[in-house]
């Protein structure tokens, strides 16, 4: 009876929140609610639909299956786009005095086994989690790697051996998983011999033994239940504070249309890896086509700005160079991408109306370069064994999985839906806002965006 009441409340809450926002009221919802599928964010309202029916609180996703009190839902919160945000983490710290299950030293603290005996020490120990929502990922240098860690400049003085690296990364959303081509930022849970569903099951078990410190792997049934639950979730911005409801006047925003979006590995791939043979279409996003024509109502300015941003995302020419994993790369179909190409945002964000890579394509766009280091990140000096070449990076990325020198700094591109609910952005949380995301790309690729173009792109991205 309790579960029925909760599900009924969720449905009523979702409808009333959207209606009240459209009426220009101020909706309220506790951002840490683990069952509410609709919640306010800085740009309006984010919503999740579960195509498998009401949320089942008995699903192992919501159960602490390890030894430290954590469940999947500890770090995957629906109000934050099924990840975590620093504001939410700080509130949980304040409410629990740093004792909430998210604050555990196996991966939540800056250093493994940090001293958390007092409140001030806990605040210092979990600063990366509190300030940027970053979890520590510790990985050993792979056997037979083409490089060694020569030195590390560690701002926290963790004293870890040079045979391993601690990387600080954002928690990826556990929603919109239908559109995945690789699991985890560095793809370490994916292989050529397994399906995405198998990868997700393996990841769920690894998360339980790792993040939750369980002594045993998940049972096959527990893993299947978690994957079935996650795979039914679709999350997107539903209401924009300026443009209103995002599926009105012919637009196709929101999670319902997203749940019906076709996807397969290789769809709309820009280098010919689409198994159907269909050519790449740079107009990967079509959600707001209907808003391109001006309408003289109280929302038209905001809606046409979103439509202009979508057009820029699809068609604005970008000179793409020095992107490891793309430029000078030869792919499985024999295509070699030149050192410099002219593309668009959708050259890399090609999955239609989802925005990630439709094939496994980890790229290095320079986010972990030493020149972009902030004082809160470590700096690793890596030495190539065959040549003695050196490179410095704040996160070796996929290289810590493959051991390949060429994979240093490579990460997958995330799914772009529900962005407004889950700042900060990039694997290391280096962009605090969508404006900073746009500024990064404008600077990195010398696009030359005007102030209005930047504003339009931000309006589009926050409406996803």
Explain what this protein looks like in three dimensions:
With 464 residues, the chain is of the alpha+beta class. It has one domain (2-85, 171-367, 411-462). Helices cover 27% and strands 13% of the residues. It contains 12 helices and 11 strands. A 4-stranded antiparallel beta sheet has the order 1-2-6-7. Strands 4-10-11 form a 3-stranded antiparallel beta sheet, with no helix packed on it. Residues 1-31 have low confidence and may be disordered.
Key words describing this protein structure:
27% helix; single chain; disordered N terminus; three-stranded antiparallel sheet; alpha+beta; 464 residues; four-stranded antiparallel sheet
Total count of helical runs of at least 4 residues: 12
Neighbour order of strands in the largest sheet: 1-2-6-7
Cα distance spanning the termini: 35 Å
Write down how many β-strands occur, each being a DSSP E stretch of 2 or more residues: 11
Determine the structural class based on helices, strands and strand pairing.
Answer: alpha+beta
What is the arithmetic mean of pLDDT? 92
Give the topology string: H per helix, E per strand: HEEHHHHEEEHHEEHHEEEEHHH
Task: Round the Cα radius of gyration to an integer and report it.
Answer: 22 Å
Q: Outline the low-pLDDT stretches.
A: 1-31
Main sheet specs: 4 strands, antiparallel
How many domains in all?
Answer: 1
The shape is globular
Percentage of β-strand residues? 5-15%
Proportion of helical residues: 25-40%
